Amino acid sequence: xxxxxxxxxxxxxxxxxxxxxxxxxxxxxxxxxxxxxxxxxxxxxxxxxxxxxxxxxxxxxxxxxxxxxxxxxxxxxxxxxxxxxxxxxxxxxxxxxxxxxxxxxxxxxxxxxxxxxxxxxxxxxxxxxxxxxxxxxxxxxxxxxxxxxxxxxxxxxxxxxxxxxxxxxxxxxxxxxxxxxxxxxxxxxxx
Length: 191
What we know:
mainly beta; three-stranded mixed β-sheet; about 0% helix; rod-shaped
């Protein structure tokens, strides 16, 4: 018998009715003698929870050398670990049903921006899940490998001649950076 969509899921039942060549009916068989079973499963597996994060101090950002991980919780046992790509690269996967984590360490050749990923998996009966490309918690990680730069820097004093300073004058530095920096910049004015 070839299983069809709509057949009852679970342990497959059967009956065997038979007669010998003389026409004697045998006792109907409805059980195996060797403890074997076949379970029918036509339901695609699904993921209950998907998130992405970085080991950077800011888990929504990554730089060269940071590891980005995708956490995966699945609905049923799988036939193998999920196959995961992060930014187009094969990720290493650890875990077991129902929780898995896939990780990839970013290098200088990786493309900057919001990090894409794919997750593919099949259940024990090899029903394939639909490919997953989005989180369930709206998380995302941005890869940034470009160091910030100063686009303009100037120094001046509050003396009437801003190019000169004397005891008691305040000296200031104005600068503009190419991107948002975290925290405050450390500025030292040495004489």
